[in-house]
Amino acid sequence: MSLSPAMLNLLKKHGEEHLLAHWGTLSEKERSSFESQLMQIDWSEVTACKNLVAKQRDNKHTIDRLHFDSAFTPTCHKLGAENTSSLKALKRGQEALAAGHVGAILMAGGQGTRLGFEGPKGTFPITTVSKGTLFDVLFGQLRAVKKRFGHNVPLAIMTSSATDNQTREFLKAANFCGLNSDFLFFFCQGNLPAVDATTHKLFLDSCDHIAVAPDGHGGMSQALAESGGLEWFQQHGCRTLVSFQVDNPLAKPVDPEFIGQHILSRSSLSTQVVPKLDPDERVGVVAELNGVTQIIEYSDLPPNIAADRLPNGRLKLFAGSIAIHAFDMRFLQDIASSSQTLPLHIAHKKVPFLNESGCLIQPNKPNAFKFERFIFDLMPLAEKVTVVEIDPKEGFAPLKNPSGARTDSPETVHKSLNAYAIRHLKSVGIEVAPGINVELDAASIFDDDDLQIIAQSGVFPKNHIDESVVVRSP
Length: 474
Ligand code: UTP
Prior knowledge:
The protein is of the alpha/beta class. The chain folds into 2 domains: 339 residues, Spore Coat Polysaccharide Biosynthesis Protein SpsA, Chain A, CATH 3.90.550.10; 67 residues. The protein contains 14 helices and 23 strands. Strand 16 and strand 17 form a beta hairpin. The site of uridine 5'-triphosphate (UTP) has 20 residues, from loops.
């Protein structure tokens, strides 16, 4: 089989004929799979990616730094403030969960390169005592909602070509971590080709395959719509969808008060933030800029603006995004039916490549540009955005880096999970002896009301824990 003339012309037009360097050595099967990859590539997107690289090279991609002067943090609702508004929101969120109006989307398509773990991040054992995986904890929380409110939270799991097979196999073997599979929907995000950082051309990672990478968590809106996921949620009666990341075992996407604030404020999109304390923290901030609520990436923020403080000592732009969002279903449907695409972002990364003699090289420094869309770029498209501030000790323990790293490592996550468990047990009168690891079973403990019942049951004599244990609700 030879390559179709149309495809050959297309490659020539884009200056990419070099991709055929090994065509002569390929079997019929390999040729056919290579041609089908070539046909699937959206060449207008490739052009957009290359234009972005050129813009960056010519330094035309700089954001107008002056306009950041006028940026400010929008009003944030504090979660757990226990005032009239927060209690009203709590009640409204509980009603929505009890009515089965809430669905969830888990972002599990990332390659997790920094963590360097074999396999999808969700399969990483993270809990302090039972060594349950990130999937166990996050799915457990949805089981706890079912136990408390009597309704399943339909869950759509976004995978990518980097994680799809292994995620499905793992979850099947793990019996979907106890979730009813009728309420699970898998969908796979798209890929975008990587571009060689020197030549600015596409490149191969095997003789019959162009190097690609997942198109970022922002690929969610398009992939969910195209896979039929939005209709699936609609059939399940969902009106609000929450999205969350696979690498934060303290995440509370189905927090009733958060959901209630979102519903009562009639927002298209609501988002959880934690206070950014140090200007150097590598976290995007929610800010209002030129009348538009948006997330400004840390790398785009000039240092003097990032360090600007309010009279009360807080950073002026303090609302650090933790990537937990609530969406009105209609908003996602409107986005899906419009021709709107989210902007591309560029990242300089290490991507394995085939050298001239056809050997696969694992680079030891960044050699390529990858392109991603970010979910938070939906924010400027939302008619109304609500920002909810949470205490990071209650909802943010990200796992990004390998063991031994100073921040966001398995050790820092363990510390946060243990401190969380000890604090909540203490709040219901259960003391934990120093140096002991305790774990709260995510699947049976929804909140402190469950812990209160455990404290009253006398399961721990004198309400004292002096050995490592998983605390479960009956
Ligand atoms: P990160 O931006 O931390 O990326 O993802 P990552 O792939 O997990 O890790 P690094 O940067 O390679 O070390 C944040 C969340 O977004 C998801 C991830 O699975 C994680 O839950 N994500 C990221 C996707 O679902 N798809 C993507 O293309 C990228």
